[in-house]
Amino acid sequence: MFEQFISFLGALEEQTGLSHFWWGNLVMIAIGATMIYLAVAKRYEPLLLVGIGFSCIISNVPGSDLILPGGLFNYAYQGVALLIIPPLIFFGVGAMTDFGPMIANPKLVVLGAAAHLGIFVALIGAKALGFTISEAGAIGIIGGADGPMAIFVTMKLAPHLLPQISVAAYSYMALMPLIQPPVMKLLTSRKERLIVMKQNRQVSRLERIAFPIVIGVLVNLFFPPVAPLITMLMLGNLFKEVLVVDRLAKTAANGLMNVIIIILTVAIGSTMAADKFLTVKTVEIVVLGLIAFLFGTGSGVLGAKVMNLFLKEKINPLLGSAGIASVPIAARVAHLVALEENKENYLIYHAMGPNLAGVFGTAISGGIMLALLGVK
Amino acid sequence: MIIPDSLNGALALSFIDFFLSIVMISGIGFVLALFPLLNKLGKIDEDKLRQGHH
Predict the structure, then answer these.
(1) What is d(CA A81, CA A156) in angstroms, rounded to the nearest whole number?
(2) Which of A261, A230, A207 has the alpha carbon at shortest distance from A55?
(3) Is B31 at the interface with chain A, CB within 8 A?
(4) Which of A14, A150, A186, A235 is most buried by its number of CB atoms within 10 A?
(5) How much is the ipTM here?
(6) Tens of pLDDT along A168-192?
(7) A–B CB contacts, 8 A cutoff, strictly below
(8) Contact (CB, 8 A) for A142 and A165
């Protein structure tokens, strides 16, 4: 009777996930819990980290059907894998973004490319570490500091690296207020940080409406591989700027965006299974991502300093660091570092120009990369 | 694949991509610099747009 009971318990255990539980699952559950802690206690990207953290925890409970084909998390992942979710995020971002600062000061647009040296430093570093060139390209794009673009390019070049790359990209974006200022201060003098920018011109409604149409055409013409993202960004922005479809713009920027964020975070977290995530490659990708952010920040600042060699009216080189795409975090960091030196130097509006240009810079880099690697 | 899967390939890819990115984004900057010319076409009445939105 007792033996029967024991064998019954054994069979029961086999039915549960307990027999497949290993220390890796425990580590990943701890990582998921840490993400939720950071979101709740430190307010680091709560919109992203709560969903990713929870989904990561559940995905590391052996036996959970949610991540298997037919499971809800798996369906969420299909939205990412089929490249439906990233363009929809851009759609929402476009509907909530004012591109006025970028239109008003076009000379700062070039900083959106200058701040992307980190992409290529990480790419070369990844190749040197033995990654394939496609994997290296996907890792490099972390340096673009643009979550949806990182996901988009990764799904095209190295989909198996999605969990590591998306987690690294979003984590570093959340940590930019800690990562960027030391580099910015190291590469600038106090005198440079004190430079006050002249007020930008007013941008008319006609220019605001023309902007998404013109950019949409240019991007589809020259960068078809990344056109879905920028096209949707521009459609969202057109909804916002035409002023006659306010309802649609608000839906794109609020309700739809929230739904997409839920799907995206659940999808990313569901890919963080211990057996795939706990590898040396993950550590290498995380380190390369950090290097990419540091170099991107540095090259942006140096790019602004180079521009100052040719400009009569000098620009504050802190604006260069905002050329790294993460909107609006990078612009806010530039603003706060300038405020430390002069409490009345409000750089935020000026920094939004290169910051928004950084989105296009990342898209262009990603598009050229995909084209050179022969990926459509 | 146009670029070889080697360290040299990665260097070439990086150099070409960075250079072209600068050129392309400068092109966008140039197009944006022409935007004020649009205002010569006329002015949009924002109040009218807002009143009629759906």
Answers:
(1) 9
(2) A261
(3) yes
(4) A150
(5) 0.89
(6) 888 888 788 889 999 999 999 999 9
(7) 144
(8) yes
